[in-house]
Design a protein that fits this description.
Shape: globular
Radius of gyration: 18 Å
Number of helices: 10
Helix content: 40-55%
CATH architecture of the largest domain: 3-Layer(aba) Sandwich
Number of strands: 6
CATH topology of the largest domain: Rossmann fold
CATH class of the largest domain: Alpha Beta
CATH superfamily of the largest domain: Response regulator
Number of domains: 2
């Protein structure tokens, strides 16, 4: 069972989301809030698996709410659910620590899958958001940076959306070894997270 909190300032939308998500036998809505500050307070009370966070809200918006939550407990996933897909809003959300970014135009089943994927550790980006992010990252493999075959294999599996456990099983390695290899790759390529590793793999034709 995935325990979530909904942050949405419009009551009818908030209640609608709660009704839709509770139809799934894998999701439990613990509470709802109308701004980021109240969502943060609820997170301290309930410690949910995920927060479904609207972005533009009065008093305390999604960016600030996400920062508060991530500073309190980085393990709580935050999935932004909004109608805005402009570059500035997306960048603000990701820099605040959001784990995914999807649009309200998606259907119910897709939203449930997005929640499940985010909780599983997979960064989810809906609509054209991923394509826009990809087009802005012009990473090319520097001739001085030599990747081993093992590093290329790991990058390819990350680009496919595999988590550490799956990568370890595929390559017959320990999960700790994969974790260390990923940390080494982040330092080696001067990147910040798995999403950028996936983009790197795609841009350099490793995937």
């Amino acid at each position: 069972m995935i325990n979530i909190i909904i942050a949405e300032d419009i009551r009818i939308v908030r209640n609608g989301l709660k009704t839709i998500l509770e139809q799934s036998n894998q999701i439990k809505v613990l509470a709802c809030a109308e701004d980021g500050q109240k969502t943060y307070d609820l997170c301290k009370e309930y410690n949910p698996d995920l927060v479904l966070m609207d972005f533009r809200m009065p008093v305390c918006d999604g960016a600030k709410g996400t920062q508060l939550i991530k500073n309190y407990n980085p393990g709580i996933k935050v999935l932004i659910l909004t109608t805005f897909d402009d570059d500035k809003t997306v960048e603000m959300a990701l820099s605040s620590g959001a784990d995914g970014y999807v649009l309200k135009e998606m259907d119910e089943d897709t939203l449930v899958k997005a929640i499940q994927s985010t909780v599983a550790g997979i960064n989810v980006f809906g609509g054209n958001i991923y394509k826009n992010l990809l087009s802005k990252i012009y990473l090319t493999e520097d001739s001085e940076i030599q990747l081993t075959d093992r590093e290329k294999e790991i990058l390819t599996l990350i680009a496919k959306g595999c988590d550490n456990k799956t990568i370890a099983k595929t390559l017959f390695l320990a999960v700790g070894t994969i974790r260390n290899n990923i940390s080494s790759l982040l330092n080696k390529l001067n990147l910040e997270d798995r999403t950028q590793l996936a983009v790197y793999a795609i841009k350099n034709n490793l995937f």
